[in-house]
Amino acid sequence: MKVCDFTRKEIEYCVNECNFTEPEEILFHMRCKDIPLERCAEEMNISVSTVKRLSKKMKNKVFRVCEGIF
After folding, report:
1. Sorting pLDDT into bands at 50, 70 and 90, what band is 1?
2. DSSP alpha helix (H) spans, 1-70
3. Triad 51, 38, 48: Cα angle to 5°
4. What is the spatial distance between Cα 10 and Cα 29, in angstroms, rounded to a whole number?
């Protein structure tokens, strides 16, 4: 799944329904712009491993909420 391939409507739905934490939502919006994880980590001032962990949690939420919709 590439978040950058989502439509605006799908992005809005995910943001509204996935109950992201603040860091997850920031990362989600960055990934919508196809920003690499390493750059996300740098801009969020956190480690790459933390970004990967956030990304995994974020993807799990999207899969659970959006299963069968997209």
Report:
1. low
2. 8-17, 22-32, 37-44, 48-66
3. 40
4. 12
Per residue in 11-35, pLDDT tens? Answer: 999 999 999 999 999 999 999 999 9
- The answer for residues whose C-beta is within 8 angstroms of residue 46's C-beta and 6 or more apart is 23
Q: How many CA atoms lie within 13 A of 8 on its CB side?
A: 0
> Residue 40 has which token pair?
């996300």
How high is the pLDDT of residue 68? 64
Instruction: Give which of 45, 66, 46, 53 is closest to 3, Cα–Cα.
Output: 66
Residue 70 has pLDDT above 70, yes or no: no
The two most distant CA atoms of the chain are separated, in Å, by 35
Closest CA to 55 of 40, 33, 70: 40
